[in-house]
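S1.2 Input.
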Amino acid sequence: MAAVIHPCVLTIAGSDSGGNAGVQADLRMFHAYALHGCTVIAALTAQNPFAVSAIHAVPADFVAAQLDAVLGVYSIRALKTGMLSCADTIRVVAERLARHPEIKAVVDPVMVATSGARLIPDDAVDALVRHLLPLATVITPNLPEAEVLAGGAVDASARLADADRAERLASALQRRFGCAVLVKGGHGEGDASVDVLCEGSSVRRFAMPRIENPVSTHGTGCSLAAAIAAELALGRDLASAVAGAKDRVHEAIRTSYLVGDGCGVLGFGKGRT
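S1.3 Output.
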């Protein structure tokens, strides 16, 4: 009798020394789904919930070596990418992913901080747009990132509700890159956070009530992308994967807890596995 091979999930992202975001948050989420997580470290960071004090980029050739070590060896059904700050690294990741079209790819194009500051240089944005986004199963930008990627395709002066603007951005990006697009509404206003998924001709809105004064929201973007990847690895269709991931991350925010003086972390969440 042949041994059962269980599905795995891969994260390609930075390491967070505080354990709130990046690879550490991704592994927490994979484990919450009872899935084995493989890792490719694209950067090392010295950070906590209050600040990032140092970043050490991993050389692109070593990122390639990590990818070569796991792809085709582990039963990786889905993956997610986080902040890839170097154009060379983005090109290496894209080249390797192009060899494995069977793997569902959730690309979180981390480019813009909550403050509005750009996090990666222009050449990295160009490499992301040219090489990586067209390979994605789904991309998960927040509203500011979606506006950067749309490059003026949606009139920024139009007075639109956040959800309507997210829908226009998602549709524009889906036409441009040919992949599904989930525009996250966490940066918007109102009592509910509304994410918009554009998948082919289908557009769906996913609304969740905002949690007042949560202990922590650090790492929610990473955790959502990781949860979507986990859901896809388990064989769910994209709309179901997004719904399940949002439920789990919402619960993780609701159950966030303190691990230091003013220092919180997301809970583990709960949901279907």
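S1.4 Remarks. Residues 8-265 form a domain with the UDP-N-acetylmuramoyl-L-alanine:D-glutamate ligase fold (CATH 3.40.1190.20).
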